[in-house]
Q: What sequence folds into this?
């Protein structure tokens, strides 16, 4: 099922990094303190600190204790809480060449993973700012490939059968065995659902067919929100 497009995740990550910083630089300082609902307890500034910290930590091979992911990410945020936007941008710029080269070195799925992580957080921030986050471009296509591969692993481990996915003009069958359910979605809607940004009710409200009883709870390998994040689209 794994797809590798003729697109380089590291290049797409660089474009997204530059675009995210451009977005934040246009904001009044007080807007950086808005809470991001998708990451409870974090502000817009904190989300930036996290994505900068991911690059710095992976470059330095700092992975925390391997048992407490939240403690690792919280340290990225807390240690940068007093840094200005420009200081964070400068740090990210220093770390980016090595990090983005690593996304290419370690292969498509690895690169798609970290591109997807950045895109999720950029979308989270846009939603918090009341902006439209919906998009359909090369970056989302590559990022979605990672989340679909993760869904394959979840379905296979659960042994529930396969799921058909129709996104645009692409049809994929995920998992093993007979197809028990299918979903039709935009790339962005499925990307957000697989990334833990949709409630179970919102996931159930997508364009499904077949027997979804055992599938809906497997869509995201991340904790799903109890309350909607308030995005205007669930396509």
A:
């Amino acid at each position: 099922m794994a797809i590798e497009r003729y697109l380089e995740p590291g290049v797409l990550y660089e474009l997204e990094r530059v675009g995210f910083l451009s977005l934040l630089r246009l904001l009044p300082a007080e807007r950086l303190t808005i809470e991001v609902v998708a990451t409870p307890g974090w502000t817009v500034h904190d989300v930036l600190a996290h994505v900068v910290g991911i690059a710095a930590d992976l470059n330095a091979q700092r992975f925390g204790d391997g048992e407490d992911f939240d403690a690792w990410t919280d340290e990225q945020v807390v240690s940068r809480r007093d840094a200005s936007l420009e200081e964070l941008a400068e740090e990210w710029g220093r770390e980016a060449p090595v990090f983005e080269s690593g996304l290419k070195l370690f292969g498509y799925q690895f690169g798609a993973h970290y591109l997807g992580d950045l895109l999720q957080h950029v979308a989270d921030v846009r939603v918090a700012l009341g902006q439209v986050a919906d998009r359909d471009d090369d970056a989302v296509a590559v990022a979605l490939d990672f989340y679909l591969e993760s869904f394959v692993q979840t379905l296979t481990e659960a042994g529930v059968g396969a799921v058909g996915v129709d996104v645009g003009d692409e049809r994929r069958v995920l998992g093993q065995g007979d197809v028990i359910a299918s979903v039709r979605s935009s790339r962005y809607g499925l990307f957000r659902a697989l990334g833990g940004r949709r409630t179970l009710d919102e996931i159930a409200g997508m364009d499904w067919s077949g027997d979804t009883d055992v599938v809906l709870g497997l869509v995201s390998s991340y904790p799903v929100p109890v309350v909607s994040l308030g995005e205007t689209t669930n396509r």
